């Protein structure tokens, strides 16, 4: 389909685009739901795509839930979704350590119980989840007890992140053979009403700065998240669509992997943001320009019902 980038998707073009893909990857928050409420029409879109023979997957940078927790949440909202269709950064981090790094040892985990569960499911033990209170003075901090079996520091979202956790990560990473893996680099988590809280990227940047190391990240826009899905389900990237609400994660992932991209305006990014990237002429920013955009994925419904 030879169309210009950032095209408003409507009318016959919707069916034409859907006919050109076999698989659809959806971001979650801001795309198919907001908070605990499904985007109106989103469950019908997902269910009809599957009924029409499309493969559907859910790719999220959120590391605070297991695949099962996501599948259970979607079931309550009326989505026809299974655990093996969910690819969150908790699961993808475990896949990266198991199959790419081939980690032999434990993980020092700055993260959630969901991350702990996904790591343990593939046989990787961890230490670090939960609060880590500080005591003593600086020389004590520099000589904090370390688990000799730890071979990687993994950083995800951690509501208990603290100076001592940062220090402990630094002490592990003083060993150049210790890996540093981050779930994602999102610096802010947008909330309803225009509010936001700090995201995993802030925690990861603190660890990188202290350790003077750069992490390998597994979440969007890194191609590893798509590779996780493609390797398990044999996807053809030329017949895949990535649907998201963020240009710097969702749309850039699609561009990085050669997928068609669709921006929905029910979340973070706007058409004005996309047009600014398009007009910049900067190669990296051009990767954040979607092929198409819609107000909401509910606009796909007529073509799917037809």
From TrEMBL:
Biological process terms in GO annotation: glycerol biosynthetic process; glycerophospholipid metabolic process
Cofactor: Mg(2+)
One Pfam family named in its UniProt record: Hydrolase_like
Reactions the enzyme catalyzes: sn-glycerol 3-phosphate + H2O = glycerol + phosphate; O-phospho-L-tyrosyl-[protein] + H2O = L-tyrosyl-[protein] + phosphate; sn-glycerol 1-phosphate + H2O = glycerol + phosphate
Keywords: Carbohydrate metabolism, Hydrolase, Magnesium, Metal-binding
Active site feature: 27 (proton donor), 29 (proton donor)
Role this protein plays: Glycerol-3-phosphate phosphatase hydrolyzing glycerol-3-phosphate into glycerol. Thereby, regulates the cellular levels of glycerol-3-phosphate a metabolic intermediate of glucose, lipid and energy metabolism. Was also shown to have a 2-phosphoglycolate phosphatase activity and a tyrosine-protein phosphatase activity. However, their physiological relevance is unclear. In vitro, also has a phosphatase activity toward ADP, ATP, GDP and GTP.
Subunit description: Homodimer.
Name of the molecule in the record: Glycerol-3-phosphate phosphatase
Source organism of the structure: Oncorhynchus mykiss
